[in-house]
Amino acid sequence: MRTIVSRLIHSKPSPSGLYTVTASRNGRYLSNDSNKVDELKVEEAETVDVPPSPSEKLLVLGGNGFVGSHICREALDRGLTVASLSRSGRSSLHDSWANNVIWHQGNLLSPDSWKEALNGVTAIISCVGGFGSNSYMYKINGTANINAIRAASEKGVKRFVYISAADFGIANYLLHGYYEGKKAAETELLTKFPYGGVILKPGFIYGTRTVGSMKVPLGVVGSPLETVLQHAKPLNQLPLVGPLFTPPANVTAVAKVAVRAATDPVFPPGIIDVHGILRYSQQKSR
């Protein structure tokens, strides 16, 4: 059992060697794009393995879902105490790791049903989101997460990681409630957690999904696309269709970066795009 602690790598400022932080509508924005204007340089965080802190507890919102279950497994592998909160409670998966998670049942839209789940929590990762009518999408992607962010801030939770979504241009208009809800949650997070809030914005997340008793190997499509599109970044700049070339991300990579962001005290706060997620996921802890 291990936990993650970090130290800074001191290096000389270099446009290609450091992430840049530029102003955005919702706050800070992390990218490995050296063409962006350098307004502030931040040093890249490196993880080292040390004995875990007995008081470190992670709460995963939506921990029984596709992304959430991978985050729970990753956190357990790192030696954390892990709890999950969702409307359905315990995961339907029968894998052995599920027995090591504390499962809470509650609805983020009904505060009295889940406040006890925050007891002893030092960090939160939210995977809460969904599709439907515009009003429903705003409520589940925006209001539910905003409720969680505010409650976590009041409770003194140290770090909060939100799994949001990459912008897909024209899709933003077709799914207005979905993206407006996520933007509202992002803004709230950067306000309430200016030093401990991290927003991950992956595109299509692939991996093996379990649907009932059937496993759907989305990696058959996602993995080749990721390999091609992560080297075709200039295509993202094309008018209208550019965002459609956002590379997919493996669910294990998203989980790895999310848990690191939630447990690493010097992990840079702000927004991390898919290219940043892929880069962080490729770093190895010592």
Task: Present the secondary structure layout.
Layout: E1 3-8, E2 20-23, E3 28-31, E4 40-41, E5 45-50, E6 57-61, H1 66-77, E7 81-86, E8 102-105, E9 123-126, H2 134-155, E10 159-163, H3 171-174, H4 176-192, E11 197-201, E12 205-206, E13 208-211, E14 214-217, H5 219-229, E15 249-250, H6 251-263, E16 270-273, H7 274-281
Helix pairs in contact: 1-6, 2-4, 6-7
Description of the molecule:
This protein is α/β, with parallel strands linked by helices and 286 residues long. It has one domain: Rossmann fold (3-Layer(aba) Sandwich). The protein is 30% helix and 23% strand. The chain has seven helices and 16 strands. The strands form four sheets. It has a ten-stranded mixed beta sheet with strand order 4-2-3-16-11-10-9-6-7-8, sandwiched between helices. Strands 1-5 form a two-stranded antiparallel sheet. Strands 12-15 form a two-stranded parallel sheet. Helix 2 runs parallel beside helix 4 and helix 6 packs across helix 7. The longest helix has 22 residues. 43% of the residues are buried. The N terminus is likely disordered.
Short description:
With 286 residues, the chain is α/β, with parallel strands linked by helices. The protein has helices at residues 66-77, 134-155, 171-174, 176-192, 219-229, 251-263, 274-281, and strands at 3-8, 20-23, 28-31, 40-41, 45-50, 57-61, 81-86, 102-105, 123-126, 159-163, 197-201, 205-206, 208-211, 214-217, 249-250, 270-273. It has a single domain, classed as NAD(P)-binding Rossmann-like Domain (Rossmann fold, 3-Layer(aba) Sandwich).
